[in-house]
Amino acid sequence: MLESYCPSDPGSSSAGASTTGESRAIPTRGNRRRRRTRGGAVLEMALLSPWVFFLFIGVLDWGFYAYALISMQAAARSAVLFTSASPGAASDLTNACKIVVKELSDLPNIGTGPNDCSSNPVVTATPVTGPDLANAARVSVQYQTISLIPIPGLLAKQFTFNKVVIMRIRS
User: Fold this and answer.
1) pTM surpassing 0.85?
2) Which of 10, 38, 67, 89 lies 20 to 30 A from 106 at CA?
3) Segment 13-49, tens digit of pLDDT
4) Alpha carbons 92 and 112: distance in angstroms, whole number
5) Euclidean distance between CA atoms 1 and 9, whole angstroms
């Protein structure tokens, strides 16, 4: 005798259901596929997280180098603006050094104590003849960055930035 199975009728029985009214889960093609793909996100994260970490470190390093370069350019510009005020100020290394150290005070490797600009940063201020054959002031600033995380082929462990600015003497 064949019995029909109705899911809403607890008294009906079938090969897939028990007589107490509970039905057993019959594995379907979708359930098996779902079981095979479990853990895929964890595997992807495990494979990609080192690359994301190195990318993040590289962005931080590039950001620091860009900030150091922009600060050094501003410091050299401020110092040459002071030294180009008069012919006597064109060789004023002491005040040019103070201006550069004040501008670079937020960077590491500068220090908070007195700095004579013979180490980091290295500053020189000299009178020169400009490109238009007029008297000019020349300030050069050299800054060596701190050691950061090197990325082979992209970033070195440490950089040395040099900036030379020449400005015509205004008076």
Assistant:
1) no
2) 89
3) 555 545 565 666 666 666 666 666 678 888 889 999 9
4) 22
5) 18
Amino acid at 116: D
Peptide bond into 121 cis (omega under 30): yes
Buried/exposed code over 107-126 (b: 16+ C-beta within 10 A; e: otherwise): beebeeeebebeebbbbebe
Which helix (H) or strand (E) is 163 found in, with range? strand 160-168
Alpha-carbon distance of 100 to 78, in angstroms, equals: 7
Residue with tokens 């379907």: 28
User: Order of strands, edge to edge, in the sheet holding 122-129?
Assistant: 122-129, 135-144, 160-168
First CA to last CA distance, the chain: 118
**Strands (E) located in 69-152:** 122-129, 135-144
Which residues pair with residue 23 across a beta bridge? 17
Q: Are 100 and 79 in contact (CB under 8 A)?
A: yes
